[in-house]
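Dear colleagues,

As part of the handover before I leave the project, I'm documenting each prediction I ran so the next person doesn't have to rerun anything. This entry is a single chain, and its sequence is reproduced below.
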Amino acid sequence: MTNRTVSLSVDDSTVCERCVVADRPFGRMRGLLGRSDLPRGEGILLRPARSVHTFFMRFAIDVVFLDENDVVVEVASNLRPWRAAGSKAARSIVELPAGEAEARGIAVGAKLSLDDARQWDPPAPFRQAAQTMAEYVVVLTVVSAAVIVALTLLSAAVVDTVQRAIDLL
């Protein structure tokens, strides 16, 4: 999960003051699991996501399904523990405390806007460099493994050759 927190609003009215962005697989998988509650004004934005479950959770939540333009396509209110909800039209999901969607006026067709101007977003060259570095690490790992296998095979061949030379003498 990124450490990025955004503010969500509808028509200049804030609906979630502190919304954590879960845009990586582990962050989406963990979601709200392990928390004992979700205070008013807090939430989590799961991106990309089409469905959620509340298995092992201790409290009910409101689930707001958004399309690719952050327009609300469905709202599942008061989703209790041990339930699941999904939407084929959804591309991302906002999880809020139970009752918060209705209280804040979130309805189908509303457009949510993210205000993350307060957050630092690394410039494109840094993101590209990080991606390139990650690719180099993967390549180096594969090459290192190949070298180790080659050295192992080579050392076996050398031992075999030495053994044959000893046998000839």
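The chain has a mean pLDDT of 86. The helical segments are 25-30, 100-103, 124-168.

All the best with the project,
I.
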